[in-house]
Amino acid sequence: MLLSAEVVSSLEKVLCRPEKSWEDFGELSGLRGERLSFQVAVKSKDAEYVNCRPADGFPYPDWLRIRLVESVPCYHPGINGDDDLLATVPSLLPDPLMELDEHSRISRQNWHAFFVNVTIPHDAPVGELEIPLQVDAHGYFGEKTSLSVSKTIRIFETVMPDRQDANIINWFYADCIMAQHNVECWSEEHWALLEKYAKNYAEHGSTLILTPLWTVSLDIAPGKQRPKCQLLDITEVDGKYEFKLDRLERWIKMIRKVGIRGLEISHVYTQWGAKHCPGIFVKDKNGVETMRFGWECSAVSPEYTDFLRQLFAVLIPFLRQHGFDSSNCYFHVSDEPTLAHLECYSAAVHALRPLLDGFPTIDALSHFEFYERGLVTHPVPDFQHLKPFLEADLEERWWYYAGSGKNMPGRYIGQPSRRNRVIGILMAFLGLDGGFLHWGYNNHSTFHSTRFDIDPYKETDWGRSGCSGCGFLVYPGPDGPVDSIRNEVFFEAIQDYHALKALEAKIGRQGMIDVIVSSLPADAAPLAVNAVPKSNSWLLSLRNAVNAALG
Predict the structure, then answer these.
(1) What is the pTM assigned to this prediction?
(2) What is the mean pLDDT of residues 365-374?
(3) Orientation angle between helical segments 418-430 and 485-507, nearest 10 degrees
């Protein structure tokens, strides 16, 4: 039985094709406490089942996690005109990482890959460590063959900083978990799944979690609503509201258990203009629950403003009692306002801000005028509109992207992984130490939330309305989240950021910048959001240089 295997970097996307598609893989190094990754590319003429495991005698098998990379259909791999894509036509591309079992299979005569995580303990021995692996293959008639491969990593003495210098947000949708797993909202089954997803969310670098006080008012067509998913239990009698916060308290305990440090409170007004109210469910004195406010209600109506006044009189003290303040709890006004929304957004801010008692607001936007007018305390500009925000004297510099412009950072399935991983380097280089925001950790729905019953393994593109992978980093599995290459590589980007910040603390900001600049290829343009070398080896060699400088 013919079997081939090669070790390749985590930044490769091994395409399901007969020919090779990767760069040579050089040195791989990491800090104590870091999670490194690489892949084993495999190809067989006639194997039915495959497995990859630590070789017998390897002293640290518990450091390793090995999964099989599967491929998914991508009808729209990237934006038109982008010249740095894996494909420009509908294609089958690698992304989900599946746990291994006796039924793990690869297609014949095509390359596939195993994704290998190496979690280095804080007390790991320093120096070179060879990681030997064995690839086993079983044929249709029971014949067996094996190959041995290995990768040597270098472990440095410095420990990866635990301190989270920047906030990382990937919008977490509790309603999508409910819908994908067909469980009742806030049932014990739902809570168990929420904890599994939240644990994965934290393990991949995210620090603040979208918290649905009410059903989130995001990506919905005017007049429509997402499935009800509201933490608050609200009763109203004769204009006076009573708020039960038991579910919110359980949510807080859950996120702290898994290591998420802060809250990102759901948007107080509707998306794209702050003109209306989110759909909020309220019980009457008889316990009958109906939706209040919503699209038919003006954002600054006296009724809604009075509701908010009564809510925040209870909510703000509750948050402070549970350890939240301006450093770990942020509120949203409305997502992605444009200049046409300046006046209605301004009216909403003036109604809301007196109720927040100093808690900050963050919103994804593209126009400096919103900050210039004092309407957003912590603006989160799009990648493509950073310039005026970089030049301003901001308390915190955040950034986000909703999509990905030509040759800019991105996490589409059809983009090379280097465009994902460079996010951490750009954050450090540009001084974006406030945080990063993206709208899709698990948005398993279609555009405008018209359907929540999609199969993300088959329908990867937001219902044919976006580029494949635009809305999610994890897939729903039988019992919880299934990782992707993109989720793992994004975590590598966050580790790059923390390593660079540790270097900055050691040699100064200019010294850290000099290390990045000196690593650029000789023919490269000055590093910028839209000017990043098209080279996996550059990213890996830069991290090796940073690790060596940290020691």
Answers:
(1) 0.97
(2) 95
(3) 30
Q: Characterize the bridge pairing of strands 233-237 and 240-244.
A: antiparallel
- Where in the chain are the domains? 3-159, 167-221+250-272+303-505
Domain 167-221+250-272+303-505 top-level CATH class: alpha beta
Residue 98 pairs in a beta bridge with 68
Distance linking the first and last C-alpha atoms of the chain: 45
Continuous segment of H or E residues that includes residue 36: strand 35-44
Strands 144-159 vs 127-139: parallel, antiparallel or unpaired: antiparallel
For the beta carbon of residue 95, count every other beta carbon within 10 angstroms.
26
**Residue 11: pLDDT over 90:** yes
Structure tokens at 393: 């004297």
Q: Read out DSSP for 504-526?
A: HHHH-HHHHHHHHHHHS-TTPPP
* Burial degree of 213 (CB within 10 A; 0-12, 13-18, 19+): buried
Which DSSP category does 503 fall into? H
CATH class of 3-159: mainly beta
Nearest to 421 by CA among 309, 268, 534: 534
Tally of CA atoms within 13 A in the half-sphere of 540 that contains its CB: 22
Which is it for strands 111-119 and 64-74: parallel, antiparallel or unpaired?
antiparallel
Phi-psi region of 463 (alpha: psi -120 to 50; beta: other; left: phi over 0): left
Model confidence over 130-179: pLDDT tens digits?
999 999 998 877 888 999 999 999 999 999 997 667 999 999 999 999 99
Return d(Cα 206, Cα 165) in angstroms, integer: 12
Please give the Cα distance from 445 to 455 (Å, whole number). 9
- Write the burial class of residue 522 (CB in 10 Å: 0-12 exposed, 13-18 middle, 19+ buried): exposed
How many CB atoms sit inside 10 A of residue 57's CB?
7
Q: What are the distances in angstroms from CA 333 to CA 59, 168, 318, 383? A: 52, 19, 20, 20
Q: Give the full edge-to-edge strand order of the sheet including 329-331.
A: 208-211, 262-265, 329-331
**Residue whose tokens read 């320093």:** 126
d(CA 267, CA 278): 8
User: How many CB atoms are located within 10 Å of the residue 45 CB?
Assistant: 12
Which of these, 471, 499, 404, lies nearest to 30 by C-alpha position?
A: 499
Judge contact between 210 and 330, C-beta under 8 A. Answer: no
Residues 64 and 39: beta-carbon distance below 8 Å: no
| Tokens encoding 494 | 């966050």
Query: Distance between CA 25 and CA 540 in Å, rounded?
Result: 9
Unique residue bearing structure tokens 């301006």:
326
Query: In the predicted model, is pLDDT for residue 513 greater than 90?
Result: yes
Q: What is the DSSP string of 128-152?
A: EEEEEEEEEEEETTS-EEEEEEEEE
Contact indicator for 128, 154 with CB cutoff of 8 Å: yes
Provide the phi-psi class of 48: left if phi over 0, else alpha when psi is between -120 and 50, else beta: alpha
- Each residue of 80-111: pLDDT tens digit? 889 999 999 999 999 999 999 887 999 999 99
Are 248 and 266 a contacting pair, CB within 8 Å?
Answer: no
Distance CA 308, CA 300 (A): 10
